[in-house]
Amino acid sequence: MATGIPPGIDLCAIPLAVNPDGLPPNFENPPSLQPTLIGISAVVLTFSVVTTAGRLYVNKRALKPADYCMAVGLILNIAIAGVIFSRSREYRHAWDTPICWYTTRLAKLDFVEGLLSGPALFFPKAAIFLFYLQIFSINRPIKIGSKIGLVMAFIAYFPTSLITVYFTAPHVGQTWDDVVTSTLPVKGVPVGITAAAASIIVDIYIFILPLPAISALKIPLSKKIQLVALFTTAFFGIVASVISLVFRVALLGFYDSGWQLGRLAITIIVENNIAIIVGSLPAFTNFLRTYVSNNALYKSLRSKFSIISNNYASGSAQHDSLPRPSTWARDSPQKRQPQYNELTESVVLKAHGAVPEVTLIATREMSDGTMVFSQGALVNTTLLEFVKTFIQAYDNLATLD
Prior knowledge:
Elements: H1 34-58, H2 65-86, H3 104-135, H4 140-168, H5 176-181, H6 184-187, H7 189-208, H8 211-215, H9 221-228, H10 233-250, H11 257-292, H12 296-319, E1 347-350, E2 359-367, E3 370-375, H13 383-399
Antiparallel strand pairs: 1-2, 2-3
Helix pairs in contact: 1-2, 1-11, 2-3, 2-11, 3-4, 3-11, 4-7, 7-10, 10-11, 11-13
């Protein structure tokens, strides 16, 4: 299993590398990325499972190809997370890792992870392109662009996954022990770098694909920026892909490989789950509106939160001796404002800051392949109402034909 070591030596007493500070190996409680990996994974996995479950539940009577793709992506993502967790103890410095940990078990886990990595990234991103086909069904350029994106994603993930398998599996006449002692895994690092670069291209393409349709809307620039904000969640996928590429490049030297692999494992978990969360979030907000906003417990909490907010606002007004600006003078307190669950056919965007809040209502009406927008009344809302509005915006994007 290891070369250059006389037989009879206890490999569990020898570290993979010498500590650069000249200290003896610490096999008991060394610095490790395992707790960080588990903590981050618990958060993002919970979000991805909950959002996907909500998506599938709300669409259970009319599941579409995008829903099936996302379900497959979630299953593969959980499988990869299981593989990473099972080897997470190795995510420590090489001088604190005994040689005996590097066995055929580790080589087989590398093989399984490489086999699943491509499909696990492809299916969630394919679901996003299929989602674009749904909400831009009459926009021919985006329909064509989404189909091109599906092909790009397939080329970016499946071939590189198969090539990775080539470098992690024993060849003809070899055993798994030969893989552990060979340089095949090191030779496969450039393939992972190529896959990460291709993933960045796909993520950028997902981000910019809807922008031409948005730029064609006959609305002011400030409102276009508000609408673009609905698609910026895809930007987090780009960030995760870039970080993954950086950590893969760091593996080229294969110095302190356990620590570098631990950092890479964290980015893999984040990248996979962000793709699932971004793809499931629009339908999940529909689930929240349909099954959560009408729940008695939710209404009770909402009522209590509103009372607290109103009391706080009243107390602040009594202690504030400075005159109030007249920014909101156009708001009529007697005028009944539309309630959250009455805005089921509109996409509402609110701008907060030094300027008055502006409500932008996007109807389902289409004209010449573009969405028709109309400006609604000025609305003065609390932070809670802003959150509900953002959720409603995603909900309606998910239900646009």
